[in-house]
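Quarterly update from the structural biology core.
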Amino acid sequence: MTVFAYQARNRSGDPFSGTLEADSLHDAAQAVRQRGLWIVRLERVRSSSARSAVCSSWLKWRSPGPRLVLLFCRQLAVLLSAGLPVHEALKALQVSGQGGLYQQLISGLLQAVVQGKTLADAMRGFPAVFSPTVINLIQAGETGGSLETVFCRLADFQEKSYEAGEKLKSVLLYPVILGGTTLAAFCFMTVFILPAFASMLLNLHTELPLLTRMLLAVSAVVQQHGFLLLLVLIGLITAAYTLYRCPAVRLQVDRLCLRLPLYGGLRRDADWMLVLGTLSLLLETGIPLHQALGMVRNVAANHYLQLQLQQLQQSVERGRSLADSLFSCQHFPDMAREIVQAGEQAGALDRMLQKAADFCAVTAANESQRLQALAEPLAILLVGGLVFCFVLSIILPLLGMIDYMI
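Predicted structure, tokenized:
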């Protein structure tokens, strides 16, 4: 059986559209006429349920990536705003898509839609691509008849979230590269350079400085037990990662991260920007506040903030206002709390939540620039200090020998 999509009108001129299964185009046309409809358009949908199942299984484990998901939302927002039905918009994306996983995603969604599913139900078949929050937003848009507006707002929000995430990655990448480079330089000097001077320094027959003795001891240990040290290091990293995955341990680690200077404020404001922006979208689509708070809980990457969002939802369900509930939230920005309180009093909570999200975004950007400005001189001091200690450990014995000879 082949799936056909049709557009037709009845005797009064009212439009009808849908899908049906038939063995051929002729049989599909007959089936439409038997319903008392005049065919305007009838075409074959060139996809199969087997292919959709394969695509869904493949994409369940591999996502096209945030940029292509953002592209999907933006393109679909434009096509829906132009008046195209959902299946026509997906068909247009299938023709002009990016290829690869993106094409598989579009094909799977189109197949599900032409079989009679809503777009939200079709998106539920791809949990690795679309989060439950996004799916709930789409479902609310379909129910309220404002799907194109939801996609426009969702695309705008995802663009801001993607930019904020990339900036955060850039800030965190610099210290990681710096630490790796410093560790590699230290290992190179202790394994290859210092042994060349070790025999010379030991033949001086003078008392070596403490720094030189420490470096020689480290070099000897690395040379004799380097492979064992590497295995121990890998074991410690594996154990730390396994321990971090324990919910209780991760909760305490995430709580400690929020108290770190500079990074803690950056991580807090970045998470609250995502939470408040998503909450604004959910309220704008008509979802009640207590339900929306439950949906945005997993938006925050920090598990301690997720726990605070759960407590916030319980407080709102007991009848307290959102602003009053936020006073018990330890890591919520004070200025953002004032903005939320003003929004509740003015009856414009959804708009003021977006204003609070924008405030958190600006604060996070400032903290990111401050962290980047401090990272460069700290990097110079760290690498320069390492080189200085290494050179000093070699120069000091030679200077001592010269003084002894004089």
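Residues 39 and 103 are 30 Å apart (CA to CA).
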